[in-house]
Task: structure prediction
Amino acid sequence: MPKLWNETIDAHRAAVREAILEATVALVAEHGALSVTMSQVAQQAGIGRATLYKYFPDVESILIAWHDGQLAGHLEHLTRVTASGGDAGQQLEATLEVHAMMTHEHHGPPWAAIVHGGDARHRQDAFIQDALRSAASSGAIRNDMTPEELANYCLHALAAAANLPSKAAVRRLVQLTLDGLRPKP
Result:
């Protein structure tokens, strides 16, 4: 029987899962997403291939799980920021600024775009749409477009934060994005 890494089965499983995620991200960063095999992941994580397959069917699934974990952390941070108070317009501004700063600071490796779709993108869109819906209801932003359209605008505009040279430039980008959301005179 293999030695448990932790005192409880649940803690052991969580530690093995984390080791798999870390090993995969390191290998993909070094070799590229298309070059990594499950055998390499198992070896890097210090587990057998059979154990690895109990957790994930393929490298893509591991990367998706890693990305979902990253996004969950970002969404928790956004939730804390928006729950800190202020009116709907201030909460929207804080939400967009946090999102833009995260994009600027942690835009991730090039392969992250491969897994940034589906449920992860849907949760991000829903969060931004809720903030936009509240701001539109309060009159802080325009209401002649759907929250879905406005969220699409915001997320695409703020994606530019990944290439900006400073936090000051990111803040200016957020203000420019907010200017596009202002109600028509």
